[in-house]
Specification:
single chain; alpha+beta; 3-stranded antiparallel beta sheet; 15% strand
């Protein structure tokens, strides 16, 4: 099971890298940063990042209900469009549902 998960992660990473390069070459859609989880923690993460001039990705580990989904979201970019399913994002490849997070508090931040 763990081996299959590793293969999926590598596939997502390769495809995301290809999508990134294609979009960059075409001056298309690049996901600079993206976070999924508790909306209050995401806001706190962004606030600390802005006030202390630190990239948010380096702070994510300090927040138990936020995950960095930058790479997985780039996976879903095609022809300069981000194509996601309606509703909850927890079932998307590369996403998860942080422990203790209530569905009603979940948010997706994309830059």
């Amino acid at each position: 099971m763990e081996e299959k998960r590793g293969e999926v992660v590598e596939l997502v990473r390769r495809r995301s890298t290809q999508n990134y390069q294609t979009e960059k070459d075409q001056q298309g859609l690049i996901i600079q940063e993206a976070y999924y989880g508790d909306r209050n923690e995401i806001e706190q993460l962004r606030r600390i990042s802005l006030t202390q001039n630190i990239h948010p990705a380096s702070l994510v580990s300090q927040f138990s209900k936020v995950i960095d989904v930058t790479i997985p979201l780039q996976f879903y970019v095609k022809d300069s469009r981000l194509q996601l399913q309606k509703g909850s994002k927890k079932g998307l490849i590369g996403f998860g549902f942080p422990e203790g997070l209530k569905e009603s508090d979940a948010a997706l931040y994309i830059k």
